[in-house]
Amino acid sequence: MPDRSSDRQLMVASQIAPRGVADARVLDAMRSVPREEFVPPAQRADAYADHPLPIGSGQTISQPYIVAMMLEAAEIAPEDRVLEIGAGSGYAAAVASRLAASVCAVERIGDLARAAAGRLARLGYGNVEVRHDDGTGGWPGGGSFDVILVAAAGPEIPAPLLAQLAPGGRLVMPVGPRGEAQRLTRIRRTPEGDRHEDLGAVVFVPLIGAAGYADDGGSAPG
């Protein structure tokens, strides 16, 4: 496979930095992860395009800018434990792994979870663990996490995820109706209580699960 490091440099220079992502660690991480490895072979020519790409099973790999923007919003420190909900192809988990001590990623679709786990292992991202499960339930038995990233939109932030957010932690998730514009929300856990911040309009695939949307298009029972 040809070296596409120049494409990664151009992606950061033309798509990400000009839109306001300024965290040097995030930009370096985006430059380091070979995005072409995380898309189907038929999509590799467009791996660094400025839009989402299909990865199978009705799911997508997010636009590079959105990945970078969410990671910057999460303010990941080198010692942090990160929980990602909606692992997809494993790309965002790979980028987050360059910023954090460890990443636990949950994917509800078995084929995607198995492919992501194999891909991440093959590429040497040893501090990422992938689990096939209902991501709206968090990572049972995993303790608390400094950062929680949710790559799908739910009607509200699932209570199990809030329960696993550590003191001082940050949770970043799109909230809103499926198939329409949603609001990217950041929650900061402070001694005075959880602080909610609106980071702007986004459109994500729906968060399916017991504490999200149902497969039939409605909301899952709470």
TrEMBL record:
<dbReference type="GO" id="GO:0032259">
    <property type="term" value="P:methylation"/>
</dbReference>
<dbReference type="GO" id="GO:0030091">
    <property type="term" value="P:protein repair"/>
</dbReference>
<keyword id="KW-0949">S-adenosyl-L-methionine</keyword>
<keyword id="KW-0963">Cytoplasm</keyword>
<dbReference type="Pfam" id="PF01135">
    <property type="entry name" value="PCMT"/>
</dbReference>
<dbReference type="InterPro" id="IPR000682">
    <property type="entry name" value="PCMT"/>
</dbReference>
<dbReference type="GO" id="GO:0004719">
    <property type="term" value="F:protein-L-isoaspartate (D-aspartate) O-methyltransferase activity"/>
</dbReference>
<comment type="similarity">
    <text>Belongs to the methyltransferase superfamily. L-isoaspartyl/D-aspartyl protein methyltransferase family.</text>
</comment>
<feature type="active site">
    <location>
        <position position="62"/>
    </location>
</feature>
<dbReference type="InterPro" id="IPR029063">
    <property type="entry name" value="SAM-dependent_MTases_sf"/>
</dbReference>
<comment type="function">
    <text>Catalyzes the methyl esterification of L-isoaspartyl residues in peptides and proteins that result from spontaneous decomposition of normal L-aspartyl and L-asparaginyl residues. It plays a role in the repair and/or degradation of damaged proteins.</text>
</comment>
<dbReference type="GO" id="GO:0005737">
    <property type="term" value="C:cytoplasm"/>
</dbReference>
<keyword id="KW-0489">Methyltransferase</keyword>
<keyword id="KW-0808">Transferase</keyword>
<protein>
    <recommendedName>
        <fullName>Protein-L-isoaspartate O-methyltransferase</fullName>
        <ecNumber>2.1.1.77</ecNumber>
    </recommendedName>
</protein>
